[in-house]
What does this fold into?
Amino acid sequence: MKFSIELTYNTPKAWVDVVLNNFDAFLQDHADCERKASAMAMSFVAKCPDKTDMIPILIETAIEELEHFQMVYKLMQERSVQLPKSMPKDEYMHQLIGACRSSPQERLLDRMLLASIVECRGAERFKLVADHLEDEALKKFYKTLWTSEAKHGNIFVVLALKYWPKQVVYQRLHELNEIEGKICASLPLRPALH
It folds into this structure.
């Protein structure tokens, strides 16, 4: 069953062209995103020690994201691409986090719902990459990641529904989804996941 919602902005083919024209830079950003996704899942564990139903699922998600980082890093090694010493500021995430409310419980809900939206965006973009790659091994790799990200998009909504009323969760999810679409539409295209 699907708990996440459809994105309001469709990534244009021009984004895929930018990625494929600088795939090594995309891999560097992709690795960084997987590392941050793992850390984010674990940060929820730290923020929610009382929400014991969430913890095993969050740990599992963090491990899976870390495994994705490991797979991307292996791919980078095969292509002689190094991890950069620093990554540029992720304007997409900066603006999304800026949309979060400030009270602790509202902020926690917003961050969980943003995690769902970000995972759905990752799924959408990994599918686009998979659909346009010619290398069969890379195509298979990104198809695997696309399905995993879609699953993660559901997980964060399911977790939110354990602790907040359905109407509250989906009203805020729709609001944040609209914000995310406007942010995507406003940002320049670059060889990065966001």
Summary: The chain is about 75% helix and 0% strand. The helical segments are 13-21, 23-47, 55-78, 91-98, 104-132, 136-163, 166-186. The domain at 13-80+113-186 is CATH 1.20.1260.10 (Ferritin). The two ends are 26 Å apart (CA to CA).
